Automatic annotation (TrEMBL):
Protein family membership: Belongs to the peptidase M20 family.
Domain Peptidase M20 dimerisation: 216-315
Protein source organism: Gracilibacillus caseinilyticus
Keyword entries, A-Z: Hydrolase
Keyword Hydrolase set for record: yes
Protein name as it appears in the record: M20 family metallo-hydrolase
Pfam families from the UniProt entry: M20_dimer, Peptidase_M20
Lineage of origin: Bacteria, Bacillati, Bacillota, Bacilli, Bacillales
Length: 413
């Protein structure tokens, strides 16, 4: 596709304006964006998106889960789908998820104006829920449309004790109709454009990240049990201190992860201590371990090493230990042909890029199990995300949209 200054300016201005427009739908207490699934700001955002798309002449619909689709109809069979998620974390940024929706909207508007009707339908999707911030329903929208949800947790409550069923009713949806959602067989490709939420692109001064795979995730809950006793009268050599044992384990996790090297990461992110008072030796510590790698064998090896080391630490400190694994998500590869095409487009447009593994999860990892899928990143300022400080320059946002436009053009025209 030939690019001139007018086309460049169109994308730049439309992207900047659309990011600002979508960020207004929020009930955040601070400067960030809070748009939790099945809340009023969420509904206003999805409804406003439908209205904007309909004003462009697109056919829109909201499915029983609240996913919004907007179709730029083509003359032939097959759908090229692009988009991301509309929900946010509490007091999050205005780019996470929203950028993928805005990018798809701007790309379709661009193609309408400069190229007219496509051969294949181009469809924008705004997934209703990806974060799992209000309910533990990570990738809820994409899992529903790919029929990966086995059971509907209608009695699941949020922090305000509002059940999922009640929350859906509040925005005019019915949990009983979720069974009407069936897997699509007309989607020929899915492309998700997202901010990196990391610092590699910025550090390496690259404009585009072409994701080859999304890392697998293993999560564990570790419970270390000792003996509560008086902090002043129990000799140091006679203690069964759960905090001391747990601290050795946690230090091992961090140090061993460093030895494995990038892109392997391991994180202890949650901890509770009992009885959690200053003058009592703790008798129980519970903590989580989140481990991520693009290599399944590496995940398994770390799990085995971690379990062995933790048990040894427990024995030395006269403690009991239980290691429970509750999540094992395998690494997911993106489509090799789409990835190669994205790389070629970057070369042609003289955009600097790098091939990447995503350590964060995205709807693309769900879609990739069922459809040809590509995931592209643009830089995040200082790698900050899930924060009001989340930022990507308009120039970088526009560069990502340019790549998306060209991908959609090749797939649909």
């Amino acid at each position: 596709m030939h690019w001139d200054q007018a086309k460049e300016t169109f994308i730049y201005q439309q992207t900047e304006a659309s990011i600002k427009w979508l960020s207004q739908f929020s009930n955040s207490d601070g400067e960030g964006v809070t748009r939790l699934v099945y809340t009023n700001p969420w509904l206003l955002a999805q409804s406003a998106l439908q209205e904007k798309c309909e004003a462009m002449g697109l056919e829109t619909r909201m499915d029983p889960a609240g996913n919004v689709f907007a179709s730029f109809k083509g003359n032939e069979q097959g759908v090229v789908l692009t988009g991301s998620h509309i929900d946010t974390v509490k007091n999050g940024g205005k780019y996470d998820g929203a950028y993928g929706i805005v990018a798809g909207l701007v790309a379709i508007k661009f193609l309408q104006e400069y190229l007219g009707i496509p051969k294949k339908t181009i469809e924008l999707v705004s997934f209703c829920e990806e974060e799992g911030s209000r309910y533990p329903l990570t990738f809820w929208g994409s899992r529903l449309i790919t029929e990966e949800v086995d059971a509907i947790p209608s009695v699941q409550e949020d922090k305000g004790h509002i059940t999922l069923k009640e929350a859906m009713n509040d925005v005019g949806l019915s949990i009983d109709e979720l069974s009407l959602i069936k897997k699509r067989n007309d989607i020929q490709a899915f492309i998700e454009l997202h901010v990196e939420q990391g610092m590699r692109l910025e550090a390496n001064e690259k404009q585009i990240g072409v994701v080859e795979q999304i890392a697998g995730v293993h999560r564990f809950t570790v419970t270390v049990t000792g003996q509560a006793n008086h902090a002043g009268t129990t000799p140091m050599t006679m203690r069964q201190d759960a905090v001391y044992g747990a601290s050795q384990m946690i230090q091992w996790v961090t140090e061993q992860a460093k030895q494995y090297g990038e892109p392997f990461v391991a994180t202890v992110g949650q901890m509770s201590v009992k009885p959690n008072v200053p003058n009592v030796i703790a008798n129980e510590v519970t903590f989580t371990v989140d481990v991520r790698s693009p290599q399944p064998d590496t995940l398994q090896t770390f799990k085995e090493e971690m379990t062995t080391v933790f048990k040894k630490i427990a024995v030395v400190n006269d403690l009991d230990i239980v290691v429970e694994q509750w999540l094992a998500t395998p690494p997911i590869m993106m489509d090799s042909e789409l990835t190669a095409t994205a790389k070629a487009i970057c070369d042609e447009q003289q955009l600097s890029y790098q091939m990447m593994t995503s350590g964060a999860g995205h709807d693309a990892q769900i879609m990739a199990k069922h459809y040809h899928t590509a995931l592209l990143f643009v830089p995040s300022y200082r790698g900050i995300s899930h924060s009001p400080l989340e930022h990507t320059s308009t120039a970088d946002l526009a560069a990502g949209v340019k790549v998306l436009v060209e991908l959609l053009y090749r797939l649909a025209y």
